[in-house]
Amino acid sequence: MRNLVLSVIGDDRPGLVSALADAVAANGGNWERGQLAQLAGKFAGIVVVAVPADREDALVAAVTGLDGLLEVAVHSAGDPVLRDESWAPLTINVLGTDREGIVHELSSALSGGVTIESMTTRTREAPMAGGMLFEAELQVLVPPTVEPSEIRADLERIAAELLVDLEFDGE
């Protein structure tokens, strides 16, 4: 079996996931993992599928042939990065007034060896106060060579500058 990574985007409308899933299943593929979301009127995501090597070309043709529904780019999956139990999981939740540069500041603080496994961000109207709030949830893995308390200190310094609240789970 070969693993393929599909990146998809299209104008949001009913039936997009079904069309993609039909193309995968009809060509011997197995939908293994995915993250899909409606963002600013577009439907976008990334999906990992497994397919027998002899069915790969047909599956690629089918998913990239969804013209008018989805634009699909197909990539060969990379080798998995193996991490043992010495890598500490850490969940970071961020909430504060939205402003430019929040993601840049947060990701810069984490760039010293911490691996971001997933990151979800959004903005929403602030209740009663007006303006916009920024929210983020990051699932990270901290290698054994980095102290989680150092990551926390760096993020708390940035949080004070950005006027955002942080919560940590997993320390």
TrEMBL record:
UniProt-listed InterPro entries: ACT-like_dom_sf, GcvR, UPF0237/GcvR_regulator
Domain of life from the UniProt record: Bacteria
Gene Ontology terms: biological process: regulation of DNA-templated transcription
Pfam family, one: ACT_6
PANTHER family the record matches: UPF0237 PROTEIN MJ1558
Identification of the protein by name: Glycine cleavage system regulatory protein
Organism: Gordonia humi
